[in-house]
Design a protein that fits this description.
The protein is an alpha/beta fold. It has a single domain, classed as Aldolase class I (TIM Barrel). It contains twelve helices and ten strands.
Length: 328
């Protein structure tokens, strides 16, 4: 009966229909389907809403690295952990624009800028606003991830021309306290509310492989899908264990569980861009192809993410050619 209920929801997810409300047990039902059946359903939803052979490419630049006061257990940028990530000041505007031009020349359509802050000071935000304006002038979509926002900051970003604000939920509310203690899950939701209220597209997803259960993963998908409006972009990160962080020794997640998470995100958020994010460098071409079949249609593009590696451009170009994918 669970599968019948799930298929009814999938059928209602056509572009003209309102999105359904999802329950944890329903999404658990997706995870528990035979993998081939799950892929079939996810691909059907994907084709009903997107070009099945088109993949959006975003480039990510750390404009301010390290020294963050937060205690996110997966993150090398926390000042609380002894990692190889060095603390750096906010990058000069000309260096950011030069990096954006390189990303555009290599085929990225969106340029994302990340800063390791709990939240930006107004003086720092003013410099980021200049970055947004200049990148926007290059004809690229703009995205920033700056931590938690104060009242009025989202409106300033909107006025500067920001297209997307990234603020991941990371994991579900019940598991959140085992990953982060210096702020709450509700704090993250408050920033998403401010971003949405300012009229900026929301980019929000999570990290899997942090020791959470399958039910935690299903609950994260439910929390994202059941937001008043689902995120326009949903990055799904596969934990990269970083020496010096509390999660340095975490075992690698079963690759098929990652594929199931991509499929669950696609089925429950049919109109969102689902992005393969951190951890893609460790994935085989075959695993990436399976993720695209499951409904992923966005990647981070370029040799570096914020502090971790990413497949080089040549490898991605070769993969796109082998699979007959087109970049958008």
């Amino acid at each position: 009966m669970q599968q019948v209920s799930t298929l009814a929801k999938v059928a209602s997810a056509a572009p003209s229909a309102s999105l359904p409300h999802w329950g944890i047990e329903e999404v658990m039902g997706l995870y528990e389907m035979p993998l081939m059946d799950l892929l079939w359903q996810a691909q059907g939803v994907h084709r009903a809403n997107f070009d099945a052979n088109a993949v959006q490419r975003s480039s990510l630049l750390s404009v301010k690295t390290g020294g963050c006061s937060e205690d996110c257990s997966y993150c090398s940028q926390s000042a609380r952990y002894d990692t190889d990530t060095e603390r750096e000041r906010l990058m000069p505007l000309d260096e950011v624009i030069a990096a954006a031009k390189v990303a555009k020349d290599k085929g990225a359509s969106r340029f994302c800028m990340g800063a390791a802050w709990k939240g930006p000071k107004d003086s720092d935000l003013d410099r980021v606003l200049d970055m947004v304006r200049e990148v926007k002038a290059l004809g690229m979509q703009t995205c920033v991830t700056l931590g938690m926002l104060k009242d009025g900051q989202a409106e300033k970003l909107k006025d500067a021309g920001l297209d997307y604000y990234n603020h991941n939920l990371d994991t579900d509310k019940d598991f959140y306290g085992q990953v982060i203690k210096t702020h709450t899950h509700d704090d993250r939701l408050d920033t998403l509310d401010q971003v949405r209220g300012a009229g900026i597209n929301v980019c929000s997803g999570g990290i899997i492989g942090m020791g959470e259960s399958r039910k935690n993963r299903a609950a994260l998908i439910v929390q994202l899908a059941n937001l008043p409006q689902p995120p326009e972009s949903v990055p799904i990160n596969n934990l990269v264990p970083i020496p010096g962080t509390p999660m340095a020794e975490n075992p690698r997640l079963d690759p098929f569980e990652f594929v199931r998470t991509i499929a669950a995100a696609r089925i429950t958020m049919p109109r969102s861009w689902v992005r393969l994010s951190a951890g893609r460098q460790e994935m085989s071409d075959e695993l990436q192809a399976m993720c695209f079949l499951a409904g992923a249609n966005s990647i981070f593009y370029g040799e570096r993410l914020l502090t971790t590696g990413n497949p080089d451009v040549e490898r991605d170009e070769a993969l796109f050619a082998r699979l007959g994918l087109k970049a958008i």
